[in-house]
Amino acid sequence: LFKLVLTLGYALSFVCLMPLGLITLDENMPFQVASFAATVVGIVIFMVAFARDGFVDARVPAYGGEYSNLVGVILFNFAFCVTMPSLLNEMKPGVRIAPVIWSTVLGSALTYIVVGLMGGLAFSAVGVNMLTTLTSRSQPGWVRVTAYVFEYIVIGLGIPIFCVYAKYNLAA
What we know:
The protein is an all-alpha fold. Helix content is about 70%, strand content about 0%.
């Protein structure tokens, strides 16, 4: 038998975020702008946290030994299969698609590399998810709070927009 655990946090997240999955892309735009701003602020704070104690005297390997989640991570982080149809349907005529795609993908990839490299150099041991390390009790309170807010705002606001994309893709 399946057990369902419904915590107050899940219930509150559902109540707060579910309505955003029912509105249009245009109505969702202020929330996505806020999510992007929170992403930038969070990354800056994390970079300060990574640099505050110096870097571990160890090299970050150029490649790892575990690749089982690579395809899923790439598909989720860049979300091509979900976002591309909506992007193409919503683009205004005359907008060149290639520069939009390449600039956003290269900017995102560079950000992933820099943050990942600095995070890898900052800690001698990192869990599967860097946010787990950033929310651990070994981190100062301001880093933990930022990581929790980052998780809720950036990741939380990402889920309803995928619902909107899916709705648009199924209706188009």
